[in-house]
Amino acid sequence: MIGDNVCNIGLDRESGVLQRINYEHIPVHFPGTGDIFASVLTGSLLQNDDLPTAIKRATKFARTSVKVTHEAGGECRNGVMFEGLLHKLR
């Protein structure tokens, strides 16, 4: 973490290309965000998106889910409110 920024990093083993996606940190913790990230990443790759696109999509969706939940005053123990954001995936 550098300042308010953190990142997700992925390495394409075949090409050797390292992908780094920076995003602004939101100082809260919700359970399940890693599962959401992994699910969106996997779904994106299964739709034949390249790794950089998949990482960007997963990062944006997970962060948006956290931001929306935090701004709505959602309790951390309940996880993020991502259901209303599913339409943004495509």
Descriptive terms for the model:
two-stranded antiparallel ribbon, globular, 90 residues, single chain, alpha+beta
Radius of gyration, in Å, reads: 14 Å
* Biggest β-sheet strands, sense, barrel: 2 strands, antiparallel
Strand order of the largest sheet: 1-2
- What share of the residues does DSSP label as strand, in percent? 15-25%
Give the tally of β-strands: 2
Pick out the low-confidence regions: none
Helix content: 25-40%
Distance between the termini: 29 Å
- Name the average pLDDT: 90
Overall geometric form: globular
Oligomeric state, counting identical vs distinct chains: single chain
Which structural class is indicated by helix and strand composition?
A: alpha+beta
User: What is the helix tally?
Assistant: 2
Which sequence of SSEs, written as H and E, runs from N to C? EEHH
